[in-house]
Amino acid sequence: MIAITINGIRTEVERGTTILKAAAALNIKIPTLCNHELLEPYGACRLCLVEIVEGDKRTITTSCNYPVTRPLVVETNSAAAVKARRMVLELLLGRCNTSETINRLAAEHGLAESRFSLNYDDCILCGQCERVCREVVGAHAITFANRGVERVVMPPFDEADQCIGCGACVYVCPTGAIQIQEDGEQKIIDRWSRVLELKHCKSCGVEIAPAFQCDYLARQAGLEPDFFDLCRDCRVARR
Predict the structure, then answer these.
(1) pLDDT band at 165 (very low <50, low <70, confident <90, very high)
(2) Containing H/E element for 31?
(3) Region 2-78: CATH code
């Protein structure tokens, strides 16, 4: 166990625990957009900035991917940390000024508008959609493309034929930039221009999932090709 003091509160955590998790254990809230329990810390949004104090030396760092390996003194709301966080939020507000999440966080930090007028869209390039698709789902249907100001998240070669329509990217997107729609016959993910036909139970007619997703899961799990012809309840009833 290693000692860490956050905002004057001393505690001990296991070696390797991130500052963000140590703070959460003390009910100290540090804002973040790109941190998710399903994914390894990435530090993309830069919103979880804190200040580490070591004597006369003060360092601003992201807390989500900073492991505690030695005794630390951390301030989450020091003037320097708040100033740095406000700058990150102002940049995000300039890029994503229609995102309810970004506007809420900006307001919480006293920002009503941004001096930067980029107005791209609500994607902050945190990569959570790409990582959950690759690390958790294993579909590899999303990737980063281009560099610098041209950097975007998109299907490989702009072809969404690997997307299984699971909705994991929608679930982890922190700003709502990815949306999914259903009309009873199709599932549509607008951002990837992916349209998938829905499969229904051959017995009761209830919606199961996109047919492409059912085929993908059957192959991955080594199931019979007709395994998803029936919903769970109908399969149980026939046993």
Answers:
(1) very high
(2) none
(3) 3.10.20.740
